[in-house]
Specification:
- This protein is an alpha+beta fold.
- It has a domain of 115 residues: Aminopeptidase (3-Layer(aba) Sandwich).
- Strands 1, 2, 3, 4, 5, 6, 7 and 8 form an eight-stranded mixed beta sheet that branches.
- The termini are far apart.
Length: 165
């Protein structure tokens, strides 16, 4: 008899999660062709990210299957323009867990926490090539803010999305 599937959970990351978050984040960005050597160091620096953001993880039982960095204050949000805005960055889902709502659960957790912190808007930037992420953001009520699109490096074009909370 087959055992029932384990439920997905989203919770704050623990320091012991940092190596798994680093491995997953770097692997997803590199395998999807979204990070060169200049960005992989930042993607792997989970401890540094934890000092500047609230790290959330998605688990399938004991297995870490996703992660995101929620920024409620400070410059790590990159595209925030006021104290009323929160941002999230480095949303990743293990390819083996895609299509199960992991990304949606992580984004929903970010929205809930930002709302609870008194923020009025969630903003994010995403690579022009991340079509799956764009579909998710549209489905969750985000709209484009083309006036905030930007390029951190030559050849890297980022689109900005926002959603009122």
């Amino acid at each position: 008899m087959e055992s029932p599937p384990t439920p997905l959970s989203v919770e704050p990351a623990r320091p012991e999660d940092h190596p798994a978050i680093a491995e997953l984040t770097v692997r997803v960005y590199v395998d999807d062709g979204l990070a060169g050597p200049q960005y992989t160091g930042q993607l792997a620096d989970v401890a540094g990210r934890a000092d500047r953001a609230h790290l959330l993880v998605a688990r399938d039982g004991d297995r870490l299957v996703g992660s995101v960095a929620l920024v409620l204050e400070g410059d790590f949000g990159e595209v925030t323009e006021s104290d009323d805005e929160a941002a999230f960055r480095m949303l990743v889902v293990d390819p083996a867990a895609r299509g199960r709502g992991v990304g949606e659960r992580l984004v929903a957790a970010c929205l809930d926490r930002a709302r609870a912190a008194g923020k009025r808007r969630m903003v994010l930037s995403t690579d022009v090539r991340m079509a799956g992420a764009h579909r998710l953001y549209h489905r969750l009520g985000f709209t484009r803010l083309p006036e905030r699109d930007w390029s951190p490096l030559p050849g890297v074009e980022l689109l900005v999305y926002a959603r009122d909370l």
